[in-house]
């Protein structure tokens, strides 16, 4: 199925899609800040495995870029951006679970709630209509 583009001038973004875009962009900024911290850590901290450290940093940068791009695609009503955005949100569930298991429930639970919340926004009826899914 080819991606569908809806005329953005015809109707404003529904509230559900608008908040999904905002939250995706906020996640991108947060992950970008983590990536900046990782870069600083890569440059200043002693490391025993520089390759692994650089790969983790690259993964964080790629994740931030992907979240930002998906937010932009959804803001332009590109239906093809929804499925990858949902996948990234659902990836927060195992991350949050392992944080809870590791004693970081104060961070894991909100991450899991965020992933489920953004997913709910992305599959809601107003978002479906705005993206051309009927």
What does this structure look like?
- The chain is mainly alpha-helical and 134 residues long.
- It has one domain.
- It is built from 6 helices and no strands.
- The chain has helices at residues 15-44, 50-75, 82-90, 92-101, 105-123, 125-130.
- Helix 1 runs antiparallel to helix 2, helix 2 (50-75) crosses helix 3 (82-90) and helix 4 packs antiparallel against helix 5 (105-123).
- The model has no long low-confidence stretch (mean pLDDT 93).
Beta strands, count:
0
CA-atom Rg in angstroms: 17 Å
What count of domains describes the coordinates? 1
SS-derived structural category:
mainly alpha
Could you estimate the helical fraction of the residues in percent?
Answer: over 70%
Task: Give the mean pLDDT.
Answer: 93
Give the ordered list of helices and strands.
HHHHHH
Shape: elongated
Question: What secondary-structure arrangement, pairings included, does this model have?
Answer:
Blueprint: H1 15-44, H2 50-75, H3 82-90, H4 92-101, H5 105-123, H6 125-130
Quick overview:
The chain has 134 residues and is mainly α. It contains 6 helices and no strands.
Question: What keywords describe this structure?
Answer:
134 residues; mainly alpha
């Amino acid at each position: 199925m080819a991606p569908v583009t809806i005329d953005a001038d015809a109707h404003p973004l529904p509230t559900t899609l608008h908040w999904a875009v905002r939250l995706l962009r906020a996640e991108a900024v947060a992950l970008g800040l983590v990536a900046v911290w990782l870069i600083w850590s890569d440059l200043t901290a002693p490391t025993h495995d520089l390759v692994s450290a650089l790969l983790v940093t690259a993964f964080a940068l790629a994740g931030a870029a992907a979240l930002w791009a998906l937010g932009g695609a959804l803001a332009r009503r590109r239906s093809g951006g929804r499925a990858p955005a949902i996948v990234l949100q659902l990836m927060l569930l195992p991350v949050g679970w392992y944080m809870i298991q590791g004693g970081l429930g104060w961070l894991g639970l909100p991450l899991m709630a965020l992933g489920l919340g953004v997913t709910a926004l992305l599959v809601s009826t107003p978002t479906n209509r705005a993206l051309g899914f009927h």
